[in-house]
Amino acid sequence: MASFDFFRDKLTEWNHNDLIQRFEDEEIDEEGFLSLEETDLMKLIPKAGPRCRFRKKHNKYLKKRQQHNDDMNIQEATSLSASIKDSMCSSGNVTGEMVSQESCQKAIIKPRNQTPKRSETKRSIDKRFGTLGESVPTTDISVVGETVYDQSEPSTSKIRPLQVNIPGKRKSDETYANKQTKKRQPGAAVGITERFEIETKTEVKKIMQRVESKLDDLPSTKLIDFLRGKIQKLEKDKKEIVGVFGKTGAGKSFLINTILGETKLLPSGNQGACTSVMIQVEANMTDSDSKYIAEIEFITEKEWKEELWSIFSDISYKDRNDEDQERDDDDDEKISALYGKDGSGATLEELMDRKHFREIPEFRLSVKKIFLCDTAEELSEKITCYTRSDTQSDTFKRQYWPLVKCITIKVPNSKDLLEHVVLVDLPGNGDCNKSRDEMWKSFVGNCSAVWIVSDIARATSEKESWEILDSTVSLFGPGGECRSISFICTKTDDIEENNQKADARTCILRRNETTKKQVRDKFNKQKEMKKHFSGGKDFLQVFTVSSKEYQKEKHLPQEETEIPKLQEFLRNLNDRRTRSSDYVSGAYGILSLIQGAKSSDTTDSKEEVCQVLEQRLKDEIKSIGQTMDEAYETFERCLSEGVRQSEESCEKLMNKVIAPRGKKGSGYHKVVKTLCKNGGVYKPKGKRERRMEINLNDSLASCMIKLIDEEFKRYFPNEGKRGPIREQIDTFTLDTNSLFGKNPKVSLHLIFLKTEETELKTKLICDLREKKKKIYCTLTESIKDSMRQCYIRASEHTGKDSLKRMKDELHHHMKNNNIFQKAKEDMLGCLINLKEHIVMQLKCKLQESMDLSLKTSNRSFFPDDVTVEYNKMKMCYEKLMGSSSTVQFTPRLDLHTKTTTFESQSGNGRKRVQVSTSITMLNPEIVKELTTHNRNPTYRLQCPKAGLFQCSSTELVFLMEGKGDVIYMMTQWDSSLLGSMTPAGPLFSIDCPEQSVRQLHLPHCMCDEKDDNLSVAHVTDGNMEIVQPLKTTATHVIVNITHLSLFGLIRNWFSFISVRSQVLLFLRPQGNRPQKRILNVILLPKNVPLCEVEHQQKGSTFIQTISNCTLSPRGKYGLCCELVPNSSTKPKSGQFDYDYSPNFHPTFQVFLDCMSGIENIRLSLLDRGSNDQRVWECLIPTDFEPPQINLINPNPGAEPELNPLLGAAFVDKYMADLIQKVPIPMGIADRLFAENMIQQEMYTTIRSAKTSQDQMRLMLDAVRSGGTVKYAFYKALINHYPYVVRDLGKIKLLLSPVSHLVEHGACNDKIVGSIPRSTHT
């Protein structure tokens, strides 16, 4: 019972009483409560909001619970050397045999107080490796203890992998039964070294968890957020992908099983059965790391319906004269696999009947199906029907592979090979299904290595393997990141049996060598294929393997089967050693930053070092910029020639695709028709033969691609030489090592900067790989985009001579739209973007790091002491790097904090930016897609450079250190945080993606700028921090900021000092009676933005008049209306509430029953507390315009009230234009989904579409049914993109609130409404 009381108490403490009954129903005790995983939480707490709040509290509780254990475990870092020494000394000589379990046990139970000295450990390692005939590489130790190597890949790791050849024998007489679950067991020395590194990383993780726990208890600031982000990014999750291609029956599945030491993981071996879906295999890194897991991802129900419709269309096509139109066995196989005899002669509706999918409800719900199994054999049996196409089975058993998009298999105990690597079993040429094909292309483009698997008997003669290579080479070559190709010849044991075993072995090895030479020779003859690569050393590797021999050792020892070579290939790609070293180095840099800031008070030294580094940064960036400019000029020349050649030969290029020789016009009709429907691409179906896809866009771009290929390969190689741009990144350095000797007191800061520099260079190289793929594809994608409308028009041609009309349409559009020039400009634009990205990343990231480490006030940096953590981290780092650091740290208690200025207190530190003291007024735009509620518009102010910029709508002023967009909105004050304080201005939620805001000027309404009651409230994560202003002017309160969140002005609640105020007038009709009107009179403080109020006054006309007055908070006032008979005012008296809520209601309402013959209205505001003294009055002419009726939205700021029939007609008429003109369709989709106009499946499909045009096409397909769906779409379209409707329908819309105020002069530089103006421009 006490076990259940535990979770009840916790849920009550966390304000989750509503969950107690649900937890009791699920019989969750204390152990279950502590072991809750994400999948459990999704079932227990379906709603996302409560689940997120519970998860946050649950995680925090678990961290605190583990605190004591972490304190104990962290001490074990000091005992690692003892473990290494004991392990290494447990045997006198090292052979190929494994280290005995007894030795390992001795290393583990060795008393921890016998830690050897570093020199002893090093001598032990040297001696150990000396017995192997290998020596530890000589290292160059710098003053900071770094081991320097010339590495092609930048890495925070300074350890070169030890090249140790370990001789030894394999026990060939060991039976297959004893080895079927055998995993890789490293040699003794390598295994001990690797285990040491992994254990070190584990200890370092515990240290960083302790530091992160301290950060969690601190309020959010820019510095603290920076540290949290750095810790979270330590564990890089990008994995290397190995794409495995091969013909059916080549033995891919069997090969993968053998490499992983599994016998029955991937289904394989049946005659007539083949893998039919993409399968990715990776290490199980989940909490259930001892389980075999399969995650099955399905295509959507809509996609399957479209695929069936396509199959039926092919069947019904009557033209039998063209060979391309014969019935494809692939289609029949899909139908028979899923439906059996029920599929024969069934209609589309019958095949989509839910009864066929009862066993896979996940398919209809668009969620993954997950299997967790204890053994590989059990998992294999469960997933067979989702992976295999079995045509030889005598009995029908429903197979679901036609519905599968991809399967992910997570294998336990495989971190040695697959912790950072994913093996993907891929079909050779994509898929006719769009989503599967996109995923296939994504996998191919991201492959770091490609394996082509072929039966050794047909390695050179079989066309399919080489056709796969030829058809995909552009995707994983220049359009991808493949760094090596491996041709794997399988079934080397398949030979004629000889009487003597030695003869069989000799025969196998002889054929292996011959085949390797033949494959290399054939590859070298593939000139078109080879031109995509730089031809680096070992780019093409040939392996001759036998999975059976590896398991049984009948003719060959395991080493000669070459399976161990493939394992080593994966192990090198996995590179756990470098990843561990990167993690430790990054963590050491973070703690060096914290400790250095707390221990250093040498301001002059910091400034001197910072100036040197800033100048070096500037010089290095200039050098990179010059290289990028050279690349731009080179490609500009190539592309200009490509445009000329393309324009001259475009007719030939197009006819090569749409009118090839030997194809009859009528018979080729369907190919051209399908090509136009699919954006210029025709992908043949069926297994009759491997046919290449037909791509008109590739053909049109071929001249330009051919001319840039050599230069592209030179500037962006995947393998071999690094290329000029990559080389510039590699050689980029701030050379912090040279500053250690002269500036020992800032050595820890310099260590941090060194790790930051290395980490950034690694990231930029990854970015370079990703962006170069997009650059290479730009030409084809640009031409596809330019031809899109033409493809649509051509596909709509039907009837007699439709083929000719389609061709004419394509030719005419190509000639008259400068598609080649546009493609050139698009590619050059991508090169410019690449340069800007690299330069800005180096400039901003490193400048930020310098500011944080060398310009931030020490004492305010990190209040908690991390000396213990730093010293332990330093010890782990030094042991891992194999050398001692000369940087010594002595804790200092007397810390000196210099006087803070704006520059030193900013998040980016003292950036010497010269800005003008004058303020530039800018008009903001309302960001519709970011507006969370129609009463709370979100503004974007685009600041073009460094300086002071004021928003004309809200009067906010931002001091910018550089170019940036500031995004902000008014939000609700939380009264529970205010206590005895009260708002003195609106609460603004402010953000700037570029983090370039350094100072904030909040408008106030105090009559006396010397009023010391004003403070700035900074609200983060439900907590309010009171910040004292830097300065208060006559109009604004100025405050320096470290990071952006919620800011607003507050003052003492008991203060009754008068404030500058405004009287705002809005006129609206009384219902349907145009002669009778209501004048809303709103009393507000002067710093409430007028645009916010006007946004809420639905269907009212704002009356410009003198609005200024001075009012007392919570004072009583009355309104007097003169010169209008039969008018009435309610209420007689009203209180000035000093209101800053997002909702602004009228203080008074004047009911005007008849205004005929009346020229003016006189209004007066009377102070009831001062004998009705007039504090404000105005004379309003009655010739003002009545509220305008907007054809689209009669109530500005309100939901559109539209004619459903007109809206539907508009959508139907301009459907094609909307596809091209709506820039971000997801805002409309969000609205439709929120109103239940589209289902979850459709919403997910729209969201997953890659381009905005595809998203709009899907959305328009969903609303074609008309009715309320189309009406809702039209309303959402107007709400998000009124200018699109205006431009298409030529309908004059009312301007948005901000632009309306700007156009009519309602927003003044200083005071809104101070000068009477007309309501017309």
Automatic annotation (TrEMBL):
Q: Which terms does the UniProt entry file under GO BP?
A: regulation of apoptotic process
- Keyword Chloroplast found: no
Q: Which Pfam families match?
A: CARD (PF00619), Dynamin_N (PF00350), FIIND (PF13553), UPA-FIIND (PF23679)
- Which Gene3D superfamilies does this one have? Death Domain, Fas, P-loop containing nucleotide triphosphate hydrolases, Transcription Factor, Ets-1
FIIND domain location is 917-1194
Q: Which PANTHER family match?
A: NUCLEAR GTPASE SLIP-GC (PTHR47308)
Q: What is this protein called?
A: FIIND domain-containing protein
Organism for this UniProt entry: Hucho hucho
